[in-house]
């Protein structure tokens, strides 16, 4: 990233981000407060979005995106087609965290995240599995954490082998660094269409006709136990499509939000107000995490008679993730001054 100062050097073989937390006066959210995230509350609300930005190659494009999302309610935005060089994590002058991983070619591809400044200190890890798959882990409480996986799938011009490799990378992201909650989202370049007979992972509000890549996605969802949350909320037709052809004659739903816990989401909607020159529209899902309810479920599960066939009953462990510290507050130069 040519126009950023005070960048941390990359750590070979390590996480792309060393972590956030510790001293509130040195980096992080810069003193920003989010009352919904006090540990004393039982309810946590998060607004997760995914957006194919087409390009965030220049700092001006990042600033443009920040200006657009400033109008919205959001917590974390997963990004596709960032088209930036290398892999880096910075704190923007706004206080928001920006992470990116380059694509196969500078002119296309790449994934990333923007994390709201009020949550920066809750980010404990960001990793890229490949140029098409990255994930971050957000600490919700001392016991519970959330993994958000962002994907940019190969287009129809790419081979089936590349698509299969991507799904293998997604599986790696799902099963590494275990967390209590997992959300998968991104541009899958696949049309799922309406629910077919016997399918339980899709709701009744899918749209369009399923194609071959869509069937691959449906099979993957079944394998990993993922629910397609776009299809569980009824919206008008013009609020369902996420991609439009240049002439506007073709519109498809190819950007999705999925999770292993269907009850987490209270809404998934297409956001049409973000205007950055992309041919995609943002998809946003609202999560309402009831920590007290999860605690109750955990207590009930531990009181059940143990079963030798259930590996989970042999050992109960809670991974406590701790945020690391950022040595300096990173800022943008040039247009951000």
UniProtKB/TrEMBL annotation:
Gene Ontology molecular function terms on file: catalytic activity
InterPro entries tied to this protein: Endo/exonuclease/phosphatase, Swc5/CFDP1/2
Region (Disordered): 1-25, 300-321
Domain of life: Eukaryota
Domain Endonuclease/exonuclease/phosphatase, chain residue ranges per copy: 49-280
Protein name, as recorded: (apollo) hypothetical protein
